Amino acid sequence: MRFRPGSRSDDEPLLCRSVDDPAAFGDFYRAYVDRVVMYFARRTFDAEIALDLAGETFAIALECREQFRGATPQEEQGWLFAIARSQLGGFFDRGKVERAALVRLGCDPPGASTADFEWVERLADLPSLRQTVRTALEDLPRDQAYAVTARVVNARDYAELAGELNVTEQVVRARVSRGLRAMAETLSDPGAGEIG
Hints:
The structure is a single chain. The protein contains 10 helices and no strands. The protein is mainly alpha-helical. It has 2 domains: 14-124, Rna Polymerase Sigma Factor, Chain: A; 126-186, Winged helix-like DNA-binding domain superfamily/Winged helix DNA-binding domain (Arc Repressor Mutant, subunit A), CATH 1.10.10. It is elongated and about 65 Å long.
């Protein structure tokens, strides 16, 4: 049940409080920013992209905070990470971060400094994660490793790869699929504990 104005309590989610008290959104941001940035960094392996996606996620949360209907911090976190998952999916679909919510709010995204990138790298332990992925890729059979690298890392088209390798598209798709499946079995989900 959603709290009504006039019945605000200290146990109420920060997002609900922020509707009447804009400063509470700052508290909301500080409460979740590390987890959100780590969520994105451990999935994109890129500090700049993680910061962009986190910014977009919080901009949408600010813009849509009145739509939140939860009554607990756990529901608040779940709502925020639903936005984050949607942003991540959109990023992978589009290949870039759209700044539509920031534009609607009239905000310019803050510029990230070298210190910001270093913070994300440390927070998510990106060098170690990159090495783990690199090792898993090296452990694949050569044909699968090449197909995964060409398709996933270099975003090459299946038809192009089939022509280069003189095989059918189905063969290339199978190599990519098998390679990714083997890597998934080798790697545990690096961000599994961050969201409920």
